[in-house]
């Protein structure tokens, strides 16, 4: 029996659209074993009522890809999923399923694929590397796609960094949150995001939280997605006022994430209250980066 633990992830971190992500200390577990015949999938935990138990299951599909690539396939497969990452909220639940399925299946057949091959495969499945790279490697990962190969730089999360995530009680699919984005952006906005992403990476490498006030600014996706998340801009402002060093949409949303080093209780309270004042019920959780 193989057992794999995969972390939640927060992608983009403001300006790093599709190329920056960080693993968080919140985990899904994938257990996998070869059986004599058939496919048996059990799911427990978050979203258990919505996750398919048939061959359309993401973990199963990822496992099938590994078996196909290495041309080794168990006669039957039993998968058990224990999920803590909320579904379709911007915390990397689908990346965790993909990465968990790939790692577990690879281990089941003797680990013929390297970590790099698993990352490239995971990115091909997800379409972008910013969730799957930290889900696989941990820490903060900056990724660059070169044809089908993903180049990564891993950064250790700065000491003392804490995160407050406000998870609304509604789901938002990545597909829907990408459909509102423009196909083209102005040179001005491109330069804006380039400069902020450079500052973000410098801030993270130096552990300079004060730089996050500018390093989390974004013009490529958050302004367009704000319309899908009632109160988003007000929650950002309230969290900053309460002491958050920066606030961002987590992945494609709807979860919002505050980055802080102190005042965590107050930041959590104002994020929850401000969402509530805008008609959104949410669960607020304090999470640390997964190194
Ligand atoms: N970079 C992705 C997005 C993350 O923002 O759409 C969600 O999968």
TrEMBL record:
Binding site for ATP: 86-96
Gene3D superfamilies: 3.30.230.10, GHMP kinase, C-terminal domain
Gene Ontology BP term (one): threonine biosynthetic process
Signal peptide: none
Pathway as given in its UniProt record: Amino-acid biosynthesis; L-threonine biosynthesis; L-threonine from L-aspartate: step 4/5
InterPro entries in the cross-refs: GHMP_kinase_C_dom, GHMP_kinase_C_sf, GHMP_kinase_N_dom, GHMP_knse_ATP-bd_CS, Homoserine_kinase, Ribosomal_Su5_D2-typ_SF, Ribsml_uS5_D2-typ_fold_subgr
Location, primary (coarse class): cytoplasm
Substrates-to-products reaction catalysed: L-homoserine + ATP = O-phospho-L-homoserine + ADP + H(+)
Taxonomic superkingdom: Bacteria
Keyword tags: Amino-acid biosynthesis, ATP-binding, Cytoplasm, Kinase, Nucleotide-binding, Threonine biosynthesis, Transferase
A matching Pfam family: GHMP_kinases_C
Gene Ontology molecular function terms on file: ATP binding; homoserine kinase activity
GO cellular component, one term: cytoplasm
Enzyme class at the top of the EC tree: transferase
EC number, as in UniProt: 2.7.1.39
Domain GHMP kinase C-terminal: 201-263
Subcellular location: Cytoplasm
Stretches assigned to the GHMP kinase N-terminal domain: 57-139
HAMAP family membership: Homoser_kinase
Role: Catalyzes the ATP-dependent phosphorylation of L-homoserine to L-homoserine phosphate.
The family this protein is said to belong to: Belongs to the GHMP kinase family. Homoserine kinase subfamily.
Protein name: Homoserine kinase
Biological source species: Thermincola potens (strain JR)
Native organism taxonomy: Bacteria, Bacillati, Bacillota, Clostridia, Eubacteriales
